[in-house]
Structures are given as C-alpha cells and as structure tokens.
Specification:
mainly alpha, flat, about 0% strand, about 45% helix
Length: about 120
Amino acid sequence: MSTAETSRFVRLRVEVVVEVDDADAVTKAALRRIAAEPDMPAEERVHAESAVTEDTAEALAYLVDPFDLVGEVPGIELQQASWSSERVDYDPDAPEWDADDDDADDDADDEEENPDET
C-alpha cells in the first residue's frame, strides 16, 4: 500500500496487568477524583461512588485514562478510546500470559501472507 493509500488512523492496543497492593488507597483516589469533578450530575456521582467503593477494578478503571497515554504525543489527536477493567487470576508462568505470544502469532501470519520474503 502506498503512503497515499495508507490510513491516517492507527489502533493502539495496550494490555496491562497490575497487582493491587492497597485496594483502599485505589478506592480513596477514585473517590477523590469523583469529588473533584464539579460538573458531574448528582445521580451520576452517586452511581460512580458506589461502583468504585464496591469494586477495586472499577476504581482503577475510573483512575486510568487512555488520553493520559497519548495526550502529550506530538502530531496525533485521540479520536476514540475505550477501556475496561476486570479481576483476573494471574500466573506469570502460564502460557496464556506470555507477553511475546501475540508477536509470534503476527510473525506466523506475515510468513503465510508473504512466503517468499525473509
């Protein structure tokens, strides 16, 4: 594909697994962020406070903003972002948590599409 035919839009996929050592600190930080939002309607505030208090994963999702990842990168404008959080059983030695696994699959796909290229 030539440069003129290449899309200007790029999908950036990031997966992060964090260990929560202090759930109370995460919850309190999320509650402070909610309290600091003056334009949040009262009904939405009550819902947000309840969600972050009941689930540390929700509190973390409330604190993490994809715009923070790319907001200062020159030459780009964030068009769309979505994110979620969930509790997971994490075993760093398990094959499904191999960070290089996706790259290996992509390399295999590239070889199938272009078998003569090295």
